[in-house]
Amino acid sequence: MIDFGLCKTLWQDWLKESALPLWSQYGFDRSRTLYHERLTFEGTPVLLPELRLMVQARQVATYCRAALDGVHDAAEQAIDCLEEIGRRYHGSDGEKGWIFSLAPDGRPGNRTRDLYAHAFILFGYAWAYRLTGNGTYLATARQTVLEIDLIFKAENGGYRDAMPTPDMIRRQNPHMHLLEAYLALFEVSSDSFYLDYARQIVALALKHFIDPGSGMLLEYFDSKWIPLQPAGQNRVEPGHLFEWSWLFTEYCTLASGESHEDALLRVADGLFQTGSRHGTAPDTADVYDAITESGTQLELSTRIWPQTEFMRLLCQRLKNGLPCDRRLLSMQATRFFTLYAPARLHGGWVDRLTPDGRQLVDYMPASSLYHIYGAAREIARVSVTQEQTAVSAGL
């Protein structure tokens, strides 16, 4: 297995020399000033009927952070893309909010207002503001927050997933990414406006998303936040358990001193422990796609993003001196660079695998880079000294 020092070096070299250059060069359409959604394994763009706002915003945020971190400088390209996004997606059909996707001719494609996509454009503006100091980006973010309230606000707390509403199902996932966006905006601006919104999402999650019996965070609910399926049969995605655990801990760091901080950190630890116990393969530490709150495995296939979220959380715990089996990180890193991002793809990745390690897709989705860079960023924050301290403590 890869030791931690080598793990840090591998990640840094792979990002700097392969992954980030691949997507800023071959993954960027200079004729449209927008990012491609997919590449073939040979690095050729896969042309799609529409380009989603979510993917554009994720790429902007990733390249802004990479520039800030001194890992890869494609900042001008990312900011140019953000300016184009603002022109093409924000209210371009004459209505409030952001359209879901853009047609090939540059006109609105799918005009649905999607909460998940709105969360990511907020995330993109947060990191663009941190990079440039351009106050217009914060102003647009605040306007978007108010538009989210206007468009998506639902009875019984939280938000609808989309407008027009395709169904009455409430999903935790877009709320998770809203929390992420609000925390990023608070981090870069110190404006309590965003922390107040983050606090509301945290309260909603604690009240409705986490099953009190199992400690699992469920995916789907009805309009009153009642789980959709009978007890023990609800979908749980271990990757989301790890994302929420990371976010709850990040919230406590940014909102330091709040009265319920200790309780929230216990919830975060519980999500990590539960996800590790029931949501990962005991022999490989691969994170399953889905289980139930009773621990039954629903989908044994694996995607790249849950693996990166597990690594990100493991590193956060190491950094914070929390109990963490460092061997899990070594196992994950080894399998990441063997199965998901092998050298033959020159900075690319395999998004989805069968339980026995066979590829399930024949392209590379751009959307994975956001998850990958998030993990790499956390790995970079853990010093070798911190990891050695964990070894000495037997963590």
TrEMBL record:
<dbReference type="GO" id="GO:0005975">
    <property type="term" value="P:carbohydrate metabolic process"/>
</dbReference>
<protein>
    <submittedName>
        <fullName>Cellobiose 2-epimerase</fullName>
        <ecNumber>5.1.3.11</ecNumber>
    </submittedName>
</protein>
<keyword id="KW-0413">Isomerase</keyword>
<dbReference type="InterPro" id="IPR008928">
    <property type="entry name" value="6-hairpin_glycosidase_sf"/>
</dbReference>
<dbReference type="InterPro" id="IPR010819">
    <property type="entry name" value="AGE/CE"/>
</dbReference>
<comment type="similarity">
    <text>Belongs to the N-acylglucosamine 2-epimerase family.</text>
</comment>
<dbReference type="GO" id="GO:0047736">
    <property type="term" value="F:cellobiose epimerase activity"/>
</dbReference>
<dbReference type="InterPro" id="IPR012341">
    <property type="entry name" value="6hp_glycosidase-like_sf"/>
</dbReference>
<dbReference type="Pfam" id="PF07221">
    <property type="entry name" value="GlcNAc_2-epim"/>
</dbReference>
